[in-house]
Amino acid sequence: MKDGFLRAGAATPEVKVADVDFNVEKIIAMVKEAENNNCSLLVFPELSITGYTCQDLFLQDALITKAYEGLERIVEETADINVVFCVGLPLKVGDKLYNVAAAVFGGEILGFVPKQNVPNYGEFYELRHFEPFIGENMTVDDIPFGRIVFENVYWPDFTFGIEICEDLWVKNAPSDELTSAGAMIIANLSASDEVIGKASYRKDLIKIQSAKCLTGYIYSDCGFGESTQDMVFAGHNLIFEDGRCLAETKPFGKPGIVYADIDIKKLSHERQKITTYYPEETDVMVVEFEQEPADNLKLIRKFSRTPFVPSDDKARAERCELILTMQAEGLATRLDHVHGKKAVIGLSGGLDSTLALIVTIHAFDRLGLDRKGIIAVTMPCFGTTSRTKNNSVALANAYGVTIREINIAEAVTVHFRDIGQSPDVHDVTYENSQARERTQVIMDIANKEGGIVIGTGDLSELALGWATYNGDHMSMYAVNASIPKTLVRYLVSYEADRVRPDEPQLAEVLDDIFNTPVSPELLPPTGDGQIAQKTEELVGPYELHDFFLYYMVRLGYSPSKIYRIAVMTFEGTYTPDVIYKWEETFIRRFFSQQFKRSCLPDGPKVGTVTLSPRGDWRMPSDAAASLWLSDLKTVLEE
Fold first, then answer.
1. Which pLDDT band, with edges at 50, 70 and 90, does 386 fall under?
2. Quick one: CA torsion of 196, 201, 206, 207, rounded to 10 degrees?
3. Which member of 39, 54, 86, 165 is catalytic?
4. How confident is the model at residue 602 (pLDDT cuts 50, 70, 90)?
């Protein structure tokens, strides 16, 4: 249970139609296999005890009686197995036959959930045999029967509901009501025959339902052994979490179980955060069970090292195109509103200012404005290297914008004299004086030219407070404010890949900027003229900080949980000690630097994580970090 992960399984056993003993053996074996794999919740297909394709054999008392005896045997032989599981069977109640799912654990039947929507169209003739459940909840031999949410008393977030095949495909799915009643996971016992195009439609349907209901969704499909008299079944099993596919079997694969680790704490966090998701009064029964959670679950789930960046090349390119369009549209709208014809950018030769220039180029092109109205200002000072300065000039020339060089060393030296700062003391005053002078210069140029200053700082810098207050922290429109550093690189690279063959100089300079170390260049270069002040050596690797940022702000993970998944994700790249060091740095800086985020300039939100005080993030500037740091320290005791 540690960190809220629950291992779920979707099983497709080999089946023999109407051979209950054979099917029961396969089910019991799979339940035992699931326990060996630390699975807490296992789902079997619809009518798995008898097989789905029994047709009029469902009208035979012999099969109905044998099916219940088979269930009793399953219950008895799995009594000491720490797995909750759901199996399907025909169940006669009074004089009606229902297609039900039985939830089983600890040697007892927790409840029966009957199918509510019984199809009788196309290839389906289920109304010939089964009654749809539209009545009141009740008990059958003291066992709950009806609409049920099952709740683990040892793990309150582990709650699940059940729907059966067609129930998902209707306009008001039972899972809508079940999740409103508190079910964190939906188990679907299904027998969905395969036709052309159905697999992708099925997957999309589960994706949308799991996202809409903020739920984990376990879909178990029947497969090999079902009758192929008129249909074929593919065993297409799927496990989703809030719209994300965690596991999927290839249709027409071998019988077996597919596993995934569902983060039910994340689901709980999302339901807490999204105010339009609220519990409703329902007639759903709550049935408790007492299952000990697996405390030492070794996760099989994988986490992206770059959660802000899609791993698939095609998806990443599409994301980059959309983001650049959103940034440019935001800036174009602002320029149009203020009747602006000019924009001023402090161009450093680094990634962030390059991206800001690219966005401004796109905005001007969208508005049909002359690119010469973009004034790129390079402001060399004590730490500027020839590499970054030359790249600034080359980039501006390649894009056809106006370039101005203003050496600020003399102005900063005068300022040092005015405030009594020794040029030989390379402290924070030495650095910030340069940053503020640069901001003053471009602000005043914007006033003189009737333009606006385009901000270059990115989301990762805002999270760490790696910006000079009222220096590069300030602008008139901050186009990069919700772009994390790991994504900035891909956006610049994407733009470089789109350079026309007749623009070799632009491609060359973008490539060199991409490979330039990240630095504010506020300290003198090394003896051989190289960059001396490298940001990631001072505050830590941005790929770690972006990882911490995503899971803390977007998903509300605790620091200890973030640490554990980071150790697993970055194994072989960073040691646990290094990860701990930089996560501690992240927490300290994130809390101490909130005052800079409380007065951010306007800028477009483009992703699910932003730190604008007018958007997604509101935090007191004087909040204490001690609770988060204490939680992180608990990992040292493990």
1. confident
2. 130
3. 165
4. very high
Phi, psi (rounded to 5 degrees) for 474: -115, 145
115 is catalytic: yes
How remote is the C-alpha of 465 from its chain's centroid? 24
The pTM is what?
0.90
What residue spans define the domains of the chain?
A: 2-289, 313-637
529: left (phi over 0), alpha (psi -120 to 50) or beta: left
CA distance 485 to 593: 18
Tokens 């993030």 -> residue? 617
pLDDT tens digits along 432-473: 999 999 999 999 999 999 999 999 999 999 999 999 999 999
Q: Pick 313-637's CATH classification: 3.30.300.30, 3.10.50.40, 1.10.1740.10, 3.40.50.620.
A: 3.40.50.620
Whole-angstrom distance between the N-terminal and C-terminal Cα of the chain? Answer: 15
Closest CA to 334 of 309, 359, 302: 359
Give 408-433 pLDDT, tens digit per residue.
999 999 999 999 999 999 999 999 99
Q: Which of 26, 35, 54, 115 is catalytic?
A: 115
Instruction: Pick the catalytic residue from 26, 35, 39, 46.
Output: 46
